[in-house]
């Protein structure tokens, strides 16, 4: 593996969403990256320039850096670990049944690193992990190889699905948790091109910063969603409330858009994990328990509006627009749309769905490739994911094809006045 001036040779273990994005952005910053995965099919696909998930801007970076030979992918664990001094752990930490993070993949990687480590390494935890994981990873590596020196660093990611490339290239901050001067210096060299604020702290603090960040954003979403329910009762427009409080610089406008609730691979998992972490310390983070409860009930609140307005759900035909948990991604993990679909089909609805990216495997619903096919002859249209395609939809044409003119805006993004002008009955969340 060659070198280009001040660039660094980096190994990224795990070529999923975080690992692939991290690797390609490090290439963009001038480093040479090896992506390691035990999944032959992933490695073959990536080596051929094919992503196994959807993220805007990433396919172009993959092709660019494969062509320039800045990135390569392999299943050769021994060679990859031996030839790189900086090793990122970017494997999944899914939610256990009790809400805690499952660290099996992290510890499995740590064991591999210990087995094949031949000289000093900096092992960088990029995966979202509970407080104290850096110490546990250190113990696992030492158990395999206590002779070779190494340091474990916590370096959490703050990528938003749908805008991950931008976020990785222009981070709000770079958080590095380590007590080793040598490791910190190597991390500074790795991120030398960054103009962002650096937070150099302990591994435990770095791990907690990640969970606290996502949990606070989830709190803002659940707060505005519960306030939207109050607005429904009081005939007040939640968008005006969001604007009024968001202009306060101490609060800010972000994550104050009322809707059907948050989903995805991060917020639900990280809120649950932080609740579990606190319980292990003998504490109840009751505020986050409420955040979680509000979010889980928000799709049902939305469906109660639908059921009330259209006169029940039994034998009704419903179009659901959007399956991904947010626009710009094909991720349906914890997506409110899945809760909506289950509830609609269980109540005897005939359901048609559309999403620009996601293909759903659900025998109880009909997936349409064209939006107009999805809305044809339905009793109600439910907008669940705010894809731009739906915002730009010819709603006048939609009006001519539906059976009943009901639109339920689960993201408060459609133009109510325009829809009413076309003859629709419009219902948002906290929108009188």
Protein architecture, described:
With 432 residues, the chain is of the alpha/beta class. The chain has two domains: 9-201, NAD(P)-binding Rossmann-like Domain (Rossmann fold, 3-Layer(aba) Sandwich), CATH 3.40.50; 216-427, NAD(P)-binding Rossmann-like Domain (Rossmann fold), CATH 3.40.50. It is 44% helix and 14% strand. It has helices spanning 17-28, 40-47, 58-67, 77-83, 104-116, 133-144, 164-169, 181-190, 203-234, 238-246, 267-280, 286-310, 336-346, 371-375, 388-391, 395-401, 416-421, and strands at residues 9-13, 32-36, 71-74, 86-89, 121-125, 150-154, 174-177, 198-201, 317-321, 350-354, 365-367, 380-383, 406-409, 425-427. It has a six-stranded parallel sheet, with helices on both faces. Helix 1 crosses helix 3, helix 4 packs across helix 5 and helix 11 packs antiparallel against helix 12 (286-310). Residues 1-5 have low confidence and may be disordered. GO terms for molecular function: NAD binding; UDP-glucose 6-dehydrogenase activity. Pfam families: UDPG_MGDP_dh (PF00984), UDPG_MGDP_dh_C (PF03720), UDPG_MGDP_dh_N (PF03721). Pathway: Nucleotide-sugar biosynthesis; UDP-alpha-D-glucuronate biosynthesis; UDP-alpha-D-glucuronate from UDP-alpha-D-glucose: step 1/1. NAD(+) binds at residues 37, 42, 93, 128, 161, 269, 333.
Number of domains: 2
From the helix content, strand content and strand pairing, which structural class follows?
alpha/beta
CATH structural architecture of the largest domain = 3-Layer(aba) Sandwich
Give the class-level CATH name of the largest domain. Alpha Beta
Extract low-pLDDT stretches. 1-5
Q: What order do the strands of the largest sheet run in, or round the barrel if closed?
A: 3-2-1-4-5-6
From the alpha carbons, calculate the radius of gyration and give it in angstroms.
Answer: 24 Å
Number of strands: 14
> How many H/I helices?
17
CATH topology of the largest domain: Rossmann fold
Distance linking N and C termini? 62 Å
How much helical structure, as a percent, in the residues? 40-55%
Please state the average pLDDT score.
Answer: 94
Task: Assign an overall shape.
Answer: elongated
How large a portion of the residues is in β-strands, by DSSP E?
5-15%
**Sheet having the most strands:** 6 strands, parallel
């Amino acid at each position: 593996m060659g070198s280009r001036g001040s660039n660094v040779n980096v190994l990224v273990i795990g070529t999923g969403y975080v690992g692939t994005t991290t690797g390609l952005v490090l290439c963009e910053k001038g480093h040479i990256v090896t992506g390691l995965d035990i999944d032959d099919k992933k490695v073959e696909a990536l080596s051929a320039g094919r992503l196994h998930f959807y993220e805007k801007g990433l396919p172009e970076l993959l092709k660019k850096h494969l062509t320039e030979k800045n990135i390569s992918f392999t299943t050769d664990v021994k060679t990859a670990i031996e030839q790189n001094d900086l090793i990122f752990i970017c494997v999944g930490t899914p939610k256990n049944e009790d809400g805690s993070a499952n660290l099996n993949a992290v510890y499995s990687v740590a064991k591999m690193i210990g087995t094949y480590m031949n000289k000093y390494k900096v092992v960088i935890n990029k995966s979202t992990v509970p407080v104290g994981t850096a110490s546990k990873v250190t113990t696992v590596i030492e158990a395999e190889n206590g002779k070779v020196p190494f340091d474990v660093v916590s370096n959490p990611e703050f990528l938003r699905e749908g805008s991950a490339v931008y976020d990785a290239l222009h981070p709000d901050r770079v958080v590095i948790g380590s007590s080793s001067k040598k490791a910190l210096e190597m991390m500074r060299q790795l991120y030398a091109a960054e103009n962002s604020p650096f937070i150099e702290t302990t591994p435990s603090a770095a791990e907690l910063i990640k969970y606290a960040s996502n949990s606070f954003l989830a709190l803002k979403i659940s707060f505005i969603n519960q306030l939207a329910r109050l607005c429904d009762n009081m005939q007040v427009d939640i968008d005006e409330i969001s604007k009024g409080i968001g202009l306060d610089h101490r609060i800010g406008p972000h994550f104050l858009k009322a809707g059907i609730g948050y989903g995805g691979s991060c917020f639900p998992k990280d809120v649950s994990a932080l609740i579990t972490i606190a319980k292990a310390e003998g504490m109840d983070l009751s505020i986050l328990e409420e955040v979680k409860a509000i979010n889980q009930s928000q799709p049902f609140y939305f469906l109660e509006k639908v059921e009330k307005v259209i006169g029940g759900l039994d034998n009704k035909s419903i179009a659901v627009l959007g399956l991904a948990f947010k626009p710009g991604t094909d991720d349906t993990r914890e997506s409110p749309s899945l809760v909506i679909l289950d509830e609609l089909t269980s109540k005897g609805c005939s359901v048609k769905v559309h999403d620009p990216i996601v293909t759903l495997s659900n025998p109880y619903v009909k997936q349409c490739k064209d939006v107009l096919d999805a809305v044809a002859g339905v009793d109600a249209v439910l907008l669940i994911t705010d894809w731009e395609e739906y915002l730009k939809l010819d709603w006048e044409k939609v009006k001519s094809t539906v059976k009943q003119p009901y639109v339920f805006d689960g993201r408060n993004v459609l133009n109510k006045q325009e829809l009413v002008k076309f003859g629709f009955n419009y219902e948002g969340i906290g929108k009188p």
